[in-house]
Specification:
By secondary structure, the chain is α+β, with helices and mostly antiparallel strands. Helix content is 58%, strand content 18%. The chain has three domains: 79 residues; 55 residues, SH3 type barrels (Roll), CATH 2.30.30; 83 residues, Alpha-Beta Plaits. A hairpin with a 2-residue loop joins strand 1 and strand 2.
């Protein structure tokens, strides 16, 4: 009796497998199914192509807008327009790609209402659970929009000072002069000092012996400063001798100021010190300090 039931079960399995193969074959050779697949494929290709075209057109439009801003007589900061243009382009690209994915999924019969509803609930939960992340993103947006600083600027925020290597929507990367890279969440950037927006001022103190002929020393100093100004691309305005800064029993200090390109005052000071030392020594005026 048991062997008879096993035999019947085996026949049913064979019959079921044969039915499955026959159904699959009928489905594959049915012209209506091939037509349906072809229509879906064409729709997917069209949706993808249109999405790529929209992305390309919007990026060109944003690039054209940035170029027009740079040529505008209002003199918009090119760093700001390029950064905002890149941000707008990425935002538009993300939105277009999202809708392309949604439309492609709909062609395969996915019910998108539960997916969108679940994404909304998930986004709300993430918003409550990741408030610091949201704060970082919002702060990053305003850093870019308000042009507080840009890539390549030298800034200081808190205890960190260095060159900005990257401004992301969540973090900012700063490399200091010794090579360390600081990754700072944008939400922690509450106060920024930007050393790259405007020209800097180089201050040089020239100390000479008290017995030195002051008029001769000033004349040599002016000639040397003019020579430095003519040969240096860091100094944008001819240096000026402000006058006698300090007098003691053994020395006199002359103060010099020079307007330099942003964040180049240290290099300019070193260059002026070197040339002034050479000039004073060549003319028999000993430079002290």
């Amino acid at each position: 009796m048991g062997s008879h039931q096993a035999w019947i079960s085996m026949l049913q399995d064979v019959s079921g497998w044969a039915h499955f193969k026959q159904s699959t074959w009928d489905y594959l050779v049915d012209p209506a199914n091939w037509t349906s697949w072809l229509i879906i494929l064409i729709k997917v290709v069209v949706i993808y192509t249109v999405g790529r075209a929209i992305n390309s057109i919007t990026r060109r439009a944003v690039r054209h807008m940035v170029q027009e801003r740079e040529k505008s007589p209002l003199k918009f900061d090119p760093r700001r327009t390029k950064t905002i243009g890149r941000l707008i382009g990425n935002l538009i690209s993300s939105v277009v790609n999202f809708f392309v994915i949604i439309l492609i999924l709909s062609q395969f019969g996915f019910n998108l209402a539960p997916i969108l509803a679940g994404a909304g609930v998930l986004g709300l939960a993430i918003g409550f659970g990741a408030q610091s992340l949201v704060k970082d993103v919002i702060t990053g947006f305003f850093i870019i929009f308000e042009d507080q600083f840009a890539v390549g600027d030298v800034i200081q925020t808190g205890a960190f000072k260095g060159t900005v290597e990257e401004i992301g929507m969540r973090v900012t990367r700063i490399r200091n002069f010794t090579g360390e890279v600081h990754i700072i969440p944008n939400g922690l950037i509450t106060q920024v000092t930007n050393y790259s927006n405007y020209n800097s001022l180089a201050i040089v103190d020239v100390t000479i012996a008290y017995e030195t002929d002051l008029e001769k020393a000033q004349q040599i100093t002016r000639q040397t400063l003019h020579k430095v100004y003519e040969s240096s691309d860091l100094i944008v305005k001819e240096p000026a001798i402000l006058g006698v800064q300090a007098v003691t029993n053994t020395e006199v200090t002359l103060r010099i100021s020079a307007e330099c390109r942003p964040n180049t005052q240290a290099e300019a000071i070193r260059g002026m010190n070197l040339e002034l030392m050479r000039a004073l020594e060549q003319n028999g005026l000993k430079k002290i300090g």
